[in-house]
Amino acid sequence: MFLLQWFLDSQRFSINYVVPTGLSKEFAGLNCQDLKLKVPSVASGVYWIDPDGGSHGNAFQAYCDQQTDGGGWTLVWSYTFTAYSSFNSGANAVTRAQPGQPVEPTLECLQQFH
Question: What pTM, to 2 d.p., does this model score?
Answer without folding.
Answer: 0.58
